[in-house]
Amino acid sequence: MPGIDTTTRRSFLTTTTLATATTAAAAALTRVAGAADEAAPVRVAVIGCGGRGGANLQEVAKAGGTIVALCDVNRAALERAAGQHAAAKTFRDFRQLYQELDPAAYDAVVVSTPEHTHAFATLPALERRKHVYCEKPLTHSIREARIIATAAKKAGVATQMGTQIHAGNNYRRVVELIQAGAIGPVRECHVWTSRAWGWQSADDAGRLADIISTQERPQDTSPVPEEVDWELWLGPAPYRPFNEAYFPGPKWYRWWDWGSGTMSDLGSHMNDLPFWALDLDAPTVIEAEGPPPHPDLAPASMVARYRFPARGDRPAVSLTWYQGERKPLVWHTNEIPRWTSGILFIGDGGMLLADYERHLLLPANRFQDYQRPPESIPPSLGQHAEWLHACRTGAPTTCNFAYAARLTEANHLGNVAYRAGRTIEWDAAAMKIPNAPEAEQFLGREYRPGWRLE
Fold first, then answer.
1. Residues spanned by CATH 3.40.50.720 within the chain?
2. What pLDDT is stored for residue 284 in this prediction?
3. I need a surface site. Which of 215, 253, 377, 390 has the fewest CB within 10 A?
């Protein structure tokens, strides 16, 4: 079973228990998703209760989810959450939650662990046919994304990746404009963010600048915080002695061991818009540039260029991602407003510039009399509420794991090309890189003893 090896001290589930769990899970699925009943309770187990997990917990509870179980490797975060949901059972290890929590007692799972354990906390829920909400990026690697997408399709449950901006009205209006042909066929797209790892953090001890400026793995150790189970936090990742350069979040996300840097983090939000508006799938060619690849650290600034093939009557698309100090040429030449972050669509008939909250048709004088298409994409209930609604009624979600896996794979491919140090040709069907097979080492990794994902 995922996350458990036969050499661990406890068996994950006996054959008899697993059969019982499967029957109970099927019954729960029929009760919740099979009945179009918006009033039906959705009993939720929450894995990861601090930071982003704490926010997801609050949103799911506010949207009407019934919290029945809580899990976190950080005792302080777990106790805070338990103080708000006194009836919920508590666990430190999500493997124990899946082993000991009666499958008939919950319908859905929210996963808000760090990126490197997303797949491990998600797969057991899908195997039990539980609905799943998982924070972005969906997985730590491309191989993991394939496993989760396959399991989600087989389970047939309501899934949602936590790209909350996807629920905003601004993105909906941009999608409508692009798909209505407001700027004509789109052949080029540029996406940039000035944020890079560390810039959004604060350090109580005033040492953040020193921590994020280091370019080498720390050789010393720091005392493990009393409330943190470091072994559990590491999970399937390689063992590293605790150091404050790694923890708490978001410090960890710049290290390849646990994260993928800004590319997959904010790429989940910003590349989401062109993926949605242009109905993109798998790129065929990816190249990247930046500082020399580091064996341990994702880059602060980099560029990744993707080529997507033509689809039906839509032309091929070139999409370029910029992070940190990198920006598109039209930004530097003042041909567009110099927004800190942006998504620029370039079509045969004009341009559309967007960010999370606003968008512009450019050049402005060309579109001053433009009649916008009628709104065809209805307002979202909210990223969490939409998922709970799907759990209750079987309605679709807009960031389901089939869509989220494709977006996650593309973002990771930018890092694969960067780490390989060369242009790669991607065979998505075979999950191979024919022109650079040595780059396939970055599609996944070996896990620590006691952990496996099948």
1. 15-166
2. 98
3. 215
81 Cα distance to chain centroid: 23
Note the pLDDT of residue 329: 96
User: What architecture (CATH level 2) is domain 168-196+261-377+402-441?
Assistant: 2-Layer Sandwich (3.30)
Domain with CATH 3.30.360 in the chain: 168-196+261-377+402-441
Question: In the chain, which residues have pLDDT < 70?
Answer: 1-36, 197-215
Looking at residue 219, its pLDDT comes to 85
pLDDT tens digit string along 377-412?
A: 999 999 999 999 999 999 999 999 999 999 999 999
